[in-house]
Design goal:
Length: 107
């Protein structure tokens, strides 16, 4: 890294803006932020690597096919609720919430 005139101008501007006393705190904050950023991006890369599930065969990367889904793993289709059934369930839930709120107030 060459220390050219651009860097000298940047350092002088930082000294004028923040002063000599605040620069170490500023540098520490930037360093912490960079460490956190690097940790988060490496975590994302690890998650992406885990998700891809690739294997290496004779120097070539081969994508693993997804596991087949058996009919037992698929949940049965639920018939759509009628508007009356939806209203009844909402009224029951509202009554339950009112009872919980009343019990919380008394406790």
């Amino acid at each position: 890294m060459s220390f050219g005139p651009e860097w000298i101008v940047i350092i002088v501007v930082l000294l004028l803006l923040f002063g000599g006393k605040k620069l170490p705190d500023l540098a520490r904050g930037v360093g912490r932020s960079l460490r956190i950023f690097k940790a988060e991006t490496s975590d994302l890369r690890k998650e992406d690597d885990d998700d891809s599930k690739t294997t290496v065969v004779q120097g070539q990367t081969v994508q693993q096919p997804p596991a087949p889904v058996s009919p037992q793993q698929i949940p049965p289709a639920v018939p759509p609720l009628t508007p009356e059934e939806q209203a009844r369930r909402l009224e029951e839930e509202a009554a339950r919430l009112r009872a919980n709120a009343k019990a919380d107030k008394q406790a």
